[in-house]
Structure formats: structure tokens, C-alpha cells
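Morning run. Coffee first, then this:
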Amino acid sequence: MRIFIDIGHPAHVHYFKNLVSIMIKEHNTDFIVTARDKEMAHYLLKSNNISFINRGKGKDSSLGKLLYLIKANFQLLRIALNTKPDLFLSFGSPYAAQVSYLLSIPSITLDDTESAKFGQLFYKPFSKLILSPTTFSKDFGVKHKKFNGYMELSYLDPKYFEPNPTVLDDLGVSKGDKFTVLRFVKWKANHDIGHNGVSIENKINAVREFSKYGKVFITSEEKLPKELESYKITIPYENIHSVLFYASMFYGESATMASESAVLGTPAIYLDNSGRGYTDEQESKYGIVFNFNESLNDQAESIEKGVEILNIEKVNWDFKRMMILNEKIDVTKFMVNQCLNIISKRAEE
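And here it is:
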């Protein structure tokens, strides 16, 4: 068997790394991986010993994205013609879906972001199967299958993840010390058009308030203002999930990191005008994520909520985590089974 995976974001490496390992060990599968040069995607692939082909940095403007769509399609088409995969697999990749369609090879596309309309427009007609969490509010018809889980469980389920306590030494904190992780994004993705995020003033306000209760560490796609440079986290990128596990709170603009924190048992504050179905559920059902929009009023309220969380001593966040783990499926196992099922059906045709 041969599976072609297209990676567009560092998070996608995490989504598929355990699937790759299982499919190689248990099903003698070969993988062809193409990866956008975005942030730490290439670094993470190398760290997980996954060979890949660089498909460039992509573009930020709408016109640039359309032109890059043509370029990337030609690149993936050329690679696929040489490698002859049995299946394409991606998270929201229009390139993988379209090339698979041109070659009459089935593709599985995963998606959990309702506002990613650009990508959905270009992958939906061409995908054989679309997989989403049950929290995903859109319905793409008969080809759309939903599962009771979160993408973050594909790599943060205890079956696949064990926190590394040495990160506490790297951070200069002791076990039990309170500390907060903040994440600010670049707002350049397809689904980020029209978003501004947290203002510089409120970034500074948040750090000032949260610092009263312990250390603050910032991870940011954008260059930080000089007032916040000293808070920038400097640990190896692959250790960030251990940091989130031991953190007292997450605060930021990343839905993925908010959900990662939730499944690790760390309360999270997430700010975004569009929101996500999964973070909504993590608030309404499990009470471990708190969603706010990007208005100045909500930014102020989110900081107040952060202070409230850092003042709480008796909430059993681990119990909320166990509720999630007990009620959700093994997402990696589910993806493996879907891949095997599609490949098996193709072989019978």
C-alpha cells in the first residue's frame, strides 16, 4: 500500500504521525509526504523521522493563494504520477483532493474548521470521503462522515502521549507552580480574513495581570512588541504539549492549542470571532474551554476570566479531562480504519 499525505500546517504533522507509524509497522505501508514550508512543519517531520518533499511556502493574498493552487497541483500531480499512490490523505488540502480526482485515486480529507470556506470550496467536490468531528456544524452530504472525537486526541490521547517533566526545569518552574501559556497567531490563513485578534494593549494587559500569579510564557507567529519580548518561550517546539500539560492556564488565539490544553486537562481561554464547534463543546459540555470574540469588550472580559481561573484552587480539571477521554474515540485508530477501508474497496473495484 502507498498513501500520499499533504501537510499544510505543523498541526497536521501531529494529526498523522501516529497513523504513519501504525500503518508502517502493522500494514507495511509506504508514504509519500509533501509539506508546506510553514513555521515548524518541516522540523516536526524530521523530528518524527518522516521523509517529505518541500512544496514551498504558499501565499497569503487571495490572488496568491489561487496562483499557488495551480503551482502546488502541478507539483503534487508530477509526484503522484511517479509514485502511484493508492490513497490521498490530508487535513483540508485542496491540492491533494484535486490531484486525486484527476488521477481517479480516492482521497480522504479531514476538517474541523467551519470557517475554512476557501479550502472547502476547492476540496469538497473532489474528495472521496470527508471526515469531521461530530461538533462540526456543516454537512457535506453522503461523502461526509463524522466521528465522536477531536483531532487533538490523535496525538494527545494517553495511548500516544506522555508529558516530559524535564520541561519544568527548562522553564525554570517547579511542579505545582502556577504559570500561563499565551499564543498569538498571524491571522494569514484562508479562514482568518477579517480578523484582527487581541490588541497589543490587551496582550500587554493580559501578561501584566497573569504575571501576578506566576510566570507567563508566550508563543507567537507575529513579532512581539518589545514590552513582551522577554516572555517569549524558547523551549524546543516538540515539547510544547508537555508545557501545556503542566500549565495552569492557556490563553490565546489558537483553537488548536485551546483544544490541546483541554484534552490535557488545562483550562483554556480562546478568542476568535468565528469560533469552532469543538471549542464550543469543550465549554458547554466539559467546562474547560472559555470562548470569547475579538471585540475589545470581550478581550477585557477574557482577561478577567483568566484572573478568575488563576485564583481558583479547587476545580478538578483532571476530572474534566477524564470525562473527555472516556467519552471520545481513539481518533488515530479511526483514521487508520478509514484508510484501510477505502484502499480495500478500491482493490475490489
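The chain is about 45% helix and 15% strand. Good start to the day.
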